[in-house]
Amino acid sequence: MDIGNKEMPDIPLHDKAGIIWMDGNTVPTEAAQIHILTHSLHYATCVFEGIRVYDGNPFALKEHFKRLHESARQLNYSLLYSVDELCSAALDLLKSNNISDGYIRPISWLGSESLGLQADGLSIHTAIAVWDWPQVYALNSAASGISVHLSDIRRPSPKSIPPQAKASASYLVGSLAYHSARRNNCQDSLLLDEKGFLAEGSSANVFLVFDNSLHTPIADRCLNGITRQLVIQIARSLGVKVIERRIAVKEIINAEEIFLTGTAVEVLPVSRVDQHAIPIGPVSKNLQEAYGKLARENKPALNLTLFSSCY
Ligand code: PMP
Known about the structure:
Elements (H helix, E strand, L loop, with lengths): L18 E4 L2 E4 L10 H5 L3 E2 L2 E4 L2 E2 L2 H14 L8 H14 L5 E9 L13 E9 L8 H4 L1 E9 L13 H16 L4 E5 L5 E4 L3 E6 L2 E5 L8 H12 L4 E4 L3 H4 L4 E6 L3 E8 L2 E2 L4 H16 L14
Parallel strand pairs: 8-9, 8-15, 12-13
Antiparallel strand pairs: 1-2, 1-7, 3-6, 4-5, 4-6, 6-7, 9-10, 11-12, 11-14, 14-15, 15-16
The site of 4'-deoxy-4'-aminopyridoxal-5'-phosphate has 16 residues, from helix 6 and strand 14.
């Protein structure tokens, strides 16, 4: 069965002609390099973001850069550029790389002055790369949904890796879970938290529908995604009840609908959990349409309250 492999880019990203912003300067893609002794490469202390660009307009740009700052703060370092400076660097980069529908990848990391767990005094770096929007799943997945595997890989305790830090360290877990899905003939994974309750996807949040209401894990053991927050607000504005709670494993396959949310996948229905078919229903479809419209209109009229304004 073709389960719709995520696509590899036609040209490797590091070979694409273009410009990358690094610590205040723009450099050709091939010159955007770091030293092999970079602390963050060894100890997973990078923080990063993923931002969608629709028709030249980045969606929720400021919120993503606020989260980048917040992620770094949770890993005990402070970025050297303000949110506004990073936003304007990203906007310039989109123009110079001629990106219309694309993706922005900001990343911050600690330098190579010394190696050891003691990270004080290391240089703090930030880069921003942009590229054309890659196809995440097969073209019709937004309508037909994707299959997910309930992975044995669990999210770590929030006392191990802070779940609100979008840190490279967390993506080892996501990547292992993603690969466990492929081995189980599914397109992506759902992960449980360390207590055995549903947490999120490998790189997306998850919602279940019961009795026309949305049920989603409390965001204290998963990333409180920007899309998650927006979808909750959209749902409430449409009169759909939203309940944040602990969701037991046995409830998952009895859901009337399931969907994932994230910057990349937007609102993506789940059509199968391992061998159990899940219907794609009106709640997912309505929210998919409403979120898609909001993102493309590029004026998030809804307020995201979770990021402080001090950056
Ligand atoms: N959870 C994880 C683990 C993620 O990587 C992502 C993608 N950033 C999300 C949830 C969704 O977050 P957002 O809606 O902010 O993209």
